[in-house]
Amino acid sequence: MKLGKQHAKLIKLQTKAESCMSRDEARKIIRKAEKAQLKISG
What we know:
Distance between the termini: 11 Å
Number of strands: 0
Shape: elongated
Largest sheet: none
Order of helices and strands: HH
Oligomer: single chain
Radius of gyration: 10 Å
Number of helices: 2
Helix content: over 70%
Structural class: mainly alpha
Strand content: under 5%
C-alpha cells in the first residue's frame, strides 16, 4: 500500500480509538494501528 493510504488509515483509526467504549474494541484498533505503522516504517 502507498504511504498516503497508510497515513489516512492511521488517522481514521485514531478517531475510532477516541470514541470506542470497550477495552476489547480499543485493543483491536491498537493492533490495526500497529500493523499500519509497521508498513509505513518499513
